[in-house]
């Protein structure tokens, strides 16, 4: 025996058994061979890998290279845009480290002490000290720590719902297998361990679910597409910009001799930085994080920030019955008397006697789940234990239990004692004299409505002690009442499902329980509204994924579903283009949650299930799901709005850069100009707009809609700035090639034009401008103007207050900008539609 085990205190007394268990030498040998119940837990990625994945990104590379180029010139003020790298990277690293910590804690089994039999004695050992071939005692309340075969049993009853999804408890007989992860709810058994650690059933499921999966949102995918496109454009354009700016200052020899190469580099970076929507990447991360914080206040944990966006696209929700629609518990519903009445109409004394008998029948030493529900329900109504002369406990082999009323209880007729039976209706009725078809019809009707039905029968007897010695069913007994129990339905389930129906989300219930029972519960919560839900046994589902997808379109409820089938169902729905969310709480749900676009776990779920889920409802309230989906829709709808705002900058920066290269003019503004203007007309307003209420359901086509909106504003802005850069020098008599003052005046004027166009674009994005949106645009427009008159701001960002000769130049440029803006709003969409129509007809 291991030293750790031997040092434990003597275990509680157990029933007598001839089994002696392993010797100390045999235990030591298995420990040396690694046959212990220890499971290694580590995430799929190390801290270093997570940091590298977030630091070395395409976005960070572009911004860092641009920042380094500016810093080499010594103009650190033009490099402030680089701080976005630190913030964005920090958010990504923190998010994934949080996911890693969750995965590192991944464990299905609850670590606790267990009693094993070794050398003929019962000793307590830790969870990971159990070895192969150990004789293990499984007691009521224990979670089975390893796979094992039953050697001896004293009424062991297991809850395997965390593994199979079926909420009914099961009795295990000698020779049958029990699996790690199931929980003993009543009885006792001695089992022989045959699979430990990573070879156990629970660990096998965990291994499949325990691979890190990064959620890639449609929004993130769209931004990445823009960044990839910009990469192919930025590198050659940056080289061409530097070349054109060197040419503009007199060539390489002159630029190197005079140091004007620095101005050329800064000008080139101004074009490059403007083309990259760095604020959009940052705002996306911040908005996801803020949404996660808001959800956390509603007891909803978002484990991956990008999954917030996935919430907006969900159109198919697969619900696990146990733990989602029901809370996993059983409740005593009512007693139905079989004399033609019910509790409210039958003889009061008869009802009282039946209720007392029901309590006494359920009041065993270790009642099962149904017995516990009956006791809880009757105790709440004031019923207590009565005197019992004899008892026959429930047996899975007999399917019934019995009690004989004690002598101090109500006297039976003619001095005879009353014998009460409770058990499976079909078993009892088949043993009683007479035709009980009507009773069985009632039983089937109640069962089809989602109830668990037991039958109570009574008989008179003269010798209770004889019955205790030879328990049997008296053929003269007669049925007197039905006991109805049902799974407790969450009070918020019906309202929540109604919300999803209104939002166009198709809900299906997928469970390991009997499809008839699941279908009945689905009817109670109006899963499909006024229409009766269509239920199906999962054993009849086709294996082919395309055929499975076709069948699923007409099915609302699936019962007897295996863990692999849940995963296959999600895959089949994906083939039809559905965005699938999956809820669950058991280990059997883990694989399906991982396969789904969005996995939602209940707070009382198994550790493995919570680890693979993107969203965890901490307090297990199904009613939080509408809040979760609504928050996702708000994020996505608003981010689509502000993405258009950022992409306008990308469009006009690319067009201006291209025009600068082709015409070899000095770049019309500095990087610090675009930092100042972008912050006031894009960055800060976008953050506020992203927080606005918005319940619009997200539709595919994010990138197409964003580009369609951004093109007119981008083209108008580029045209306005370029017209000022091309025509103002000749109109105003400025020599921008020879005079630094004239170039500074031109750039200051172009910056004002850029700011005005930015305000116009902001107003277009923020529409309607009534209420707070109009105030928002006005405030940021005013902030931009006020900044011109603050010395520190003006000097830091190289701004100029129009005065003297700049006043007419500014007025001319602004007048032309307004005309160009409204002209582009009309012409560009028309050209876009013509091109789209031409491409569609090809």
Which terms would index this structure?
842 residues; Calcium-transporting ATPase, transmembrane domain; eight-stranded mixed β-sheet; seven-stranded antiparallel β-sheet; alpha/beta; ATP binding; Calcium-transporting ATPase, cytoplasmic transduction domain A; 5 domains; 30 helices; disordered N terminus; translocase; transmembrane helix
CATH fold topology of the largest domain: Calcium-transporting ATPase, transmembrane domain
CATH architecture of the largest domain, please? Answer: Up-down Bundle
Order of adjacent strands in the largest pleated sheet: 8-21-20-19-9-16-18-17
Average pLDDT across residues? 79
Organism: Bifidobacterium avesanii
Keywords: Membrane, Translocase, Transmembrane, Transmembrane helix
Protein name: HAD-IC family P-type ATPase
Domain P-type ATPase A: 115-208
Characterization of the model:
The protein folds into five domains: 3-40 and 113-203, Calcium-transporting ATPase, cytoplasmic transduction domain A; 47-67 and 80-104; 218-292 and 631-841, Calcium-transporting ATPase, transmembrane domain (Up-down Bundle), CATH 1.20.1110; 303-325 and 491-620, Rossmann fold (3-Layer(aba) Sandwich); 329-488, 3-Layer(aba) Sandwich (Calcium-transporting ATPase, cytoplasmic domain N), CATH 3.40.1110. The protein has 30 helices and 21 strands. Strand 17 (535-537), helix 20 and strand 18 (557-559) form a beta-alpha-beta unit. The chain is elongated. The relative contact order is 0.09. Residues 115-208 form the P-type ATPase A domain. One of its GO terms (molecular function) is ATP hydrolysis activity. It holds the Pfam family E1-E2_ATPase.
């Amino acid at each position: 025996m291991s030293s750790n085990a031997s040092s434990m205190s003597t275990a509680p007394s157990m029933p007598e058994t001839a089994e002696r268990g392993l010797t100390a030498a045999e235990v030591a040998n298995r420990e040396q061979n690694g046959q212990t119940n220890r499971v290694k837990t580590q995430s799929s990625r190390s801290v270093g890998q997570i940091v590298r994945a977030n630091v070395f990104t395409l976005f960070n590379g572009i911004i860092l290279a641009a920042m380094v180029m500016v810093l080499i010139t010594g103009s650190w003020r033009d490099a402030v845009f680089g701080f976005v790298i630190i913030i964005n990277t920090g958010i990504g690293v923190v998010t994934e480290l949080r996911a890693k910590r969750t995965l590192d804690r991944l464990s299905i089994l609850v670590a606790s002490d267990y009693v094993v039999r070794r050398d003929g004695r019962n000793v307590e050992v830790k969870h990971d000290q159990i070895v192969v071939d150990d004789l293990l005692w499984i007691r009521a309340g224990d979670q089975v720590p390893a796979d094992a075969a039953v050697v001896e049993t004293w009424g062991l009853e297991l809850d395997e719902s965390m593994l199979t999804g079926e909420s009914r408890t099961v009795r295990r007989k000698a020779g049958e297998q029990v699996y790690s992860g199931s929980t003993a709810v009543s009885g006792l058994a001695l089992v022989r361990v045959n699979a430990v650690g990573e070879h156990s059933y629970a660990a096998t499921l965990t291994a499949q679910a325990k691979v890190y999966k990064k959620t890639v949102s449609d929004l993130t995918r769209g931004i990445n597409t823009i960044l990839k496109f910009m990469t192919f454009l930025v590198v050659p354009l940056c080289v061409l910009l530097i070349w054109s700016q060197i040419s503009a200052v007199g060539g390489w020899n002159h630029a190197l001799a005079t140091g004007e190469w620095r101005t050329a580099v800064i000008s080139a970076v101004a074009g490059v930085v403007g083309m990259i929507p760095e604020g959009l990447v940052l705002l996306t991360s911040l908005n996801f994080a803020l949404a996660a914080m808001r959800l956390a206040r509603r007891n909803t944990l978002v484990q991956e920030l990008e999954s917030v966006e996935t919430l907006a696209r969900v159109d198919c929700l697969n619900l696990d019955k146990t733990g989602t629609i029901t809370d996993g518990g059983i409740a005593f519903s009512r007693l139905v008397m079989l004399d033609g009445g019910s509790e409210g109409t039958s003889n009061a004394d008869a009802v009282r006697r039946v209720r007392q008998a029901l309590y006494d029948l359920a009041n065993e030493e270790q009642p099962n789940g149904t017995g516990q529900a009956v006791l809880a329900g009757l105790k709440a109504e004031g019923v207590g234990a009565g005197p019992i002369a004899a008892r026959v406990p429930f047996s899975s082999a007999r399917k019934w239990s019995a009690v004989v009323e004690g002598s101090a209880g109500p006297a039976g007729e003619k001095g005879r004692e009353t014998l009460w039976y409770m058990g499976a209706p079909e078993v009892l009725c088949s043993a009683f004299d007479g035709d009980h078809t009507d009773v069985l019809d009632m039983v089937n009707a109640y069962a089809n409505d989602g109830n668990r039905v037991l039958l109570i029968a009574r008989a008179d007897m003269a010798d209770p002690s004889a019955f205790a010695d030879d328990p049997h069913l008296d053929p003269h007994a007669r049925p007197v009442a039905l006991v109805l129990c049902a799974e407790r339905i969450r009070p918020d389930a019906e309202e929540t499902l109604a919300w999803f129906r209104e939002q166009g989300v198709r809900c299906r219930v997928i469970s390991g329980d009997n499809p008839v029972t699941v279908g009945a519960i689905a009817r109670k919560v109006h899963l499909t509204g006024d229409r009766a839900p269509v239920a199906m046994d999962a054993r009849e589902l086709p294996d082919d994924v395309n055929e499975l997808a076709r069948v699923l379109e007409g099915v609302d409820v699936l019962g007897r579903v295996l863990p692999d089938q849940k995963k296959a169902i999600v895959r089949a729905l994906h083939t039809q283009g559905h965005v699938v969310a999956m809820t669950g709480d058991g280990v059997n749900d883990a694989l399906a949650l991982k396969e789904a676009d969005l996995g939602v776990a209940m707070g009382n779920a198994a550790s493995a299930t919570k680890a693979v889920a993107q969203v965890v409802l901490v307090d297990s309230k199904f009613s939080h799901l509408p809040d979760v989906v609504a928050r996702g829709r708000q994020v996505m709808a608003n981010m689509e709005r502000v993405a258009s705002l950022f992409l306008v900058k990308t469009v006009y920066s690319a067009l201006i850069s291209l025009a600068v290269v082709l015409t070899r003019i000095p770049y019309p503004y500095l990087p610090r100009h675009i930092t100042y203007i972008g912050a006031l007309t894009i960055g800060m307003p976008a953050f506020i707009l992203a927080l606005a209420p918005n319940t619009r359901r997200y539709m595919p086509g994010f990138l197409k809609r964003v580009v369609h909106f951004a093109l007119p504003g981008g083209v108008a802005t580029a045209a306005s700035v370029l017209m000022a850069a091309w025509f103002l020098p000749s109109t105003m008599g400025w020599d921008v090639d020879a005079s630094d003052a004239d170039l500074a005046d031109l750039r200051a004027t172009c910056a004002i034009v850029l700011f005005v166009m930015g305000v116009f674009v902001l107003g277009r994005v923020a529409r309607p401008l009534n209420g707070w949106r109009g105030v928002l645009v006005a405030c940021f427009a005013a902030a931009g103007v006020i900044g011109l008159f603050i010395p520190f701001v003006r000097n830091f960002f190289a701004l100029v207050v129009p005065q003297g000769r700049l006043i007419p130049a500014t007025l001319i440029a602004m007048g032309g900008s307004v005309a160009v803006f409204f002209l582009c709003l009309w012409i560009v969409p028309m050209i876009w539609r013509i091109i789209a129509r031409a491409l569609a007809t090809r």
